[in-house]
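Go through this:
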Amino acid sequence: MARWTVTFTDKPEMDRVRGDRKRREAHIAYVRAHPELQIGGALAMRPMQDFPGAIWNVEAETRQDVERLILQDPYYVASLRRYTITEWGTASAVQGILS
């Protein structure tokens, strides 16, 4: 199982999506139903700033599995949200490569 970080970059109009209560509740239910989404949250560069994006840590077999999670999330709106998927390893995996 691989580990991935997804970094979302949002347009300012994404605030309307976050403000939609039904969509927010659907997003929360979606995240809770997918334990492979290990941690996630809004991304702010400084306190009290509007959220310019979000970040997820995901455990999944493939990049396509991660992308499927993104595209099915009720918060994903292609015209308002871009994302970058980065695979990362554990310290022991890196050590094995360096040895």
